[in-house]
Amino acid sequence: MSVSVRVRNLEKNFEQYPALRGVSLDVAVGELVALLGPSGSGKTTLLRCIAGLEHQNSGNVFFDDINADQLSLRERRIGFVFQQYALFKHMKVADNIAFGLRARPRATRPTESAIRSRVDELLNLVQLSGLENRFPSQLSGGQRQRVALARALAIEPRVLLLDEPFGALDAKVRKDLRRWLRELHHRTGHTTLFVTHDQEEAFELADRVAILNQGVIEQIGPPAAILNHPATEFISDFVEDIELENNKRDAKFSNVVKLQKHSLPQG
């Protein structure tokens, strides 16, 4: 069952370097929020603190009204998807997906038949039915990322966290998987945060976008609100960069179309 996420005044330092400086953030149940910003802005550190993979110097993370800092990694029930898939190479697809369920303590571990049923359900959900007996090396990059997502969903996470989930994929596969992830989110309704450096990805996918800069959230809001009403000079420059990239892409596409028209046989 999904929960809300509340981050309050999070501070995280790596030696003398402040990675997070008093970050606060609210994510509603079932919301899809993108953490966007330049390299070193603190977005991955924030995600890892929410997951419990990093321990903040001060501040708190709450799941609904429960202080997540008092929960073990297992008790947090986080589904985490990494950029590089992190699949077990020696395990078949079905065993990778089932890993989190089989790793549970005996008292809470589902029966083997229930695990197989859950794996079949997830293979169908991520559109990989029939590939359960393949090894990761026999899959494309996009297929591996969908296996990684199925594995994260298998444990019925309270929160789904994705760290640059499409960063290792080429542009066309990224675009296809973005559309697919948005549709999947509509179907499952998980509270989801994802880190990306890709502005187009964030603004296309997310309900709201949080833009970080030097360990601070400079602005958070729906994509249209940020694009139309940038709150700071940094955000204004950031949005301008997005528009420039989009204009370049549109001009390139227009030129390709013109060339194709000119190359068509006449008559």
Most strands sheet: 6 strands, mixed
Work out the radius of gyration.
20 Å
Per DSSP, the total helix count is 9
Average pLDDT score: 87
| Terminus-to-terminus distance | 62 Å
Helix/strand-derived category reads: alpha/beta
Q: What is the strand content?
A: 15-25%
Number of DSSP-assigned strands? 10
Could you name the ranges where pLDDT drops below 50 across 5 or more consecutive residues? 260-264
Kindly list the characteristics that best describe this protein.
267 residues; alpha/beta; six-stranded mixed beta sheet; four-stranded antiparallel beta sheet; 23% strand
Give the secondary structure arrangement, pairings included.
Blueprint: E1 5-14, E2 17-27, E3 32-36, H1 43-51, E4 58-63, E5 66-67, H2 73-76, E6 78-81, H3 93-102, H4 112-125, H5 141-154, E7 159-163, H6 171-188, E8 191-196, H7 199-205, E9 208-213, E10 216-221, H8 223-228, H9 233-263
Parallel strand pairs: 3-8, 3-9, 6-7, 7-8
Antiparallel strand pairs: 1-2, 1-4, 4-5, 9-10
Helix pairs in contact: 3-4, 3-5, 4-5
Q: TL;DR?
A:
This protein has helices spanning 43-51, 73-76, 93-102, 112-125, 141-154, 171-188, 199-205, 223-228, 233-263; strands spanning 5-14, 17-27, 32-36, 58-63, 66-67, 78-81, 159-163, 191-196, 208-213, 216-221. The chain is an alpha/beta fold and 267 residues long.
